[in-house]
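Subject: two folds for Thursday's group meeting

Dear M.,

Sorry for the delay on this. The cluster queue was jammed most of the week, so I only got both jobs back this morning. I'm pasting them in the order they finished. Each block is the input sequence followed by the predicted structure tokens. Could you check whether the formatting survives your parser before we put anything on slides? The first protein is the one we discussed after the seminar.
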Amino acid sequence: MLTDHRDVVLGVMPFGALHTPSLGVGLLHGLLMNAGRSVKTCYFTFEFAKLIGLRTYERISDGEPSRQDLLGEWIFSGNLFDQDRRSVEQYICKILKGADSDHALKRSGCEKITDREIEDLLRIRSLTAQFLEDCAIRILSYSPKIVGLTSMFQEHTAVLSLAKRLKVLDERIVTVVGGANCDGEMGAQTLKSFPFLDAVVSGEADETFCQMVEAFIHARYSDLAQLPGIHFRSRPSVDSPPQIHLSSSQSVVENLDKVPFPNFDDFFSAAKADYDANAGLYVTFETSRGCWWGEKQHCTFCGLNGSSMNFRSKSPDRALSEVTFLANKYQTRNFAAADNIIDYRYFRTLLPMMIERGIDLNLAYEVKANLKKDEICLLKKCGIEHIQPGVESFSTPTLKMMKKGVTGVQNIQLLKWCREIGVEANWGILWGFPGEDPAEYERMARLVPLLTHLQPPGGVGRIRLDRFSPNFSSARKYGFSNVAPVPSYSHVYDLPEEDVRNLAYFFRFDYGDNRDVDQYVHSLKEAVTKWQHEAWSSGLYGLWTSASVMVVDLRSCSAEDVVDYRGLEMEVLRSCERAATIGEIESEVLASGGYSESDLEIALSLLENRKLLIHMDQKYLSLLIDFSKFAPSIAVERIIAGMGRRDATGGKLPPFGINEPEHVSGTSV
């Protein structure tokens, strides 16, 4: 097979994502081209997906059956180490089937793996050697001087196995590995444990990668030693064996505007050839690095930004020019920001600019959960219809333990506004923090039936210790003991215990007080499962006129389907559209309506009892979704049309619209 020569080949291995290009590799591709070096990026992800089946690939890539089982890593690990039949059987028994207690905890929330699925996984393992051979031959066909491989999530053993095979086929080739799996101690240990690697890049490489390439090409090892974040192995000579040089610092890009646009040409070419072009492809882009909240107060469970927490963002003009360039070049509207958190200043700069210039894109961002309603409206107008707000819990004491900087009622308020405005929130509930109050989970379980008209969580997950998180780095302080890598690592890496610890990102632990966390979270899990099943048919809408609000309640916890509220009850619901203290409600309602404090107390009690209002964190919040802003399905409209109306006392009313004042706003049914 004849191909063009390339100075550098970059590779993306299984189980990298299929539906979006690698941002890190795209940035390096652009940097190398700007530096005058010829480069090719090979997405071997598509080829392996075709080999084992798209659905199977995506399940493993998504972390099934449990991310900390390291299934994707185990599949390729036999190419790094001699694993006999007994070793394979132990992984299947202890990890996949949950015989090991730490993995049994994860199994409890997953479907049990079947014998047929295990047979399929063993078949997939048997295909990896030839697959790696084919990958290596393809790379060598470009006659590169350097091969750079990215490693994130469950890509490490595939990457290392390919580097190992490349060295066997051509020992002159320079093998370099980088990515999130090489941050901190993990990067240094990767170089030390695998002698077929020439270098490991730890941290951001935008300002050092091209210099490293030139140093290797010209054998200037003294130059390599000056580059932050570059761990390397010098080539052996007649006088000395190869030496390992570990960098004591990491590179951090301060001005992101100077980073070139990423180049994703090879991804889209590969996707067009090997993947359904209409299968939900999107572009990953970035407008910032680090976390401005983490700089102030690091969320205790978060292991992101191991070496670069300090927040830096692109100027609004640069961010806008980049996303429009990528949209035009790759003819796509679908984008997901790699940012850990949106730059709050963008609500005053970038987002209004996008609206003003008529940018029509579908974007996803991570945000903090304390957004105001007008900010969520602004996100929607900009095409940011998918957010990851980091809700984590409805318990304010638990959120304080996490150092989230929000309250439970703020989280519910966010979900309410997202449902009303039409922004999808991707979130989950975390549990199992040392010292948390079990009563909080019972309280949340009682609260959940009131919230089934809102977006449900993706799941309810027990926390784990991630490297770089405060829970890991200060484990004793936060109540964790006997911290060790999750057992799956020892089945993947046949290395000394300390080396495995340095390579690991996920860690198991014991509680200092020996609490049984599974027992007190059971009711919440059941409530959430019911929520997930009911969400599609549930609803709680308010249809407002100048004289009343008709409440349409499709939740299973409701006592009445349709009830009209007038007077003080209507005013309270309006006043509590956002979470309000009793003082704020009094100043808004009592001053203008001629009602007494006793009247207000009765109204609040009535609305709480009917589960239309919640009282949390010294605030009241109406759970109604404004029907005028929410577009229900035809099925919901029909359900509403067929319901009988009642007033707050239970008396029947005529169909909505008959003998009523005209609407102040909204859509009639």
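Second protein, same layout:
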Amino acid sequence: DHTANYAVVIAQLYTLRKFRSLAPFIVHIRDEETHMPVPGVDIGEIGPKLGMKSGNNGYLGFKNARVPLNHMLMKNQQVLFDGTYIPPKNSALTYGTMIIDHK
């Protein structure tokens, strides 16, 4: 079952050929008409996990992927059109988007 054409992905952010931080992006992963992966995107299932039978498990991979600047979620850090990186005021905010509370 193909259920999403876009995904929020936490990825390495490079500007001006320098690693800056991890950052969240909205990424186009499937064609809206065919629902097949777009070029450079690899999507697959890994099968059921012991004890987690209620949800599908899979992987999402990228090869030479470039994401438009306007797809970056820039609440805590920013990149200007010239590539200037503006870090968050508190570096701990960068990693807050990766913390998920499983209750």
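Two things I noticed about the second structure. The first helix runs from residue 93 to 96. The chain has a mean pLDDT of 84.

Cheers,
T.
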